[in-house]
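Session log. Operator J.P. requested a structure for one protein chain; no other inputs attached. Running the standard single-chain path with token output.
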Amino acid sequence: MTHKDINAKREREKAMVSEMIALYCRKRHGSKKGLCSECAVLDAYARAKSERCPFMETKTFCSNCKIHCYKPEMREKIRAVMRFSGPRMMFRHPVMAVRHVLEVKKEKRRLEMCDEV
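Structure written below.
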């Protein structure tokens, strides 16, 4: 992967997580404009982790990574966001959601093949 490809992948991941947090915040916390303070902290944290991820070239999403760099409290918060927003993304951002599902499935198949060897 080229440096340009990795940066594009990193930006897609950051956009996906920000969209999911925004959806969660609107529906769960009733935020009309922007994010509530709790969700803003989570968004900044998640984006910072993606920005500094040394495994971006080989992983698809954080959920597939063997090294979990999130603090336990933040990891639970992002899991709650993903559980809530994941199914709803198909209606909000269908192209982004389908791309995400395809990339996750591709990565799981790749990992299964590596385990068999």
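Operator note: Residues 15 and 47 are 9 Å apart (CA to CA).
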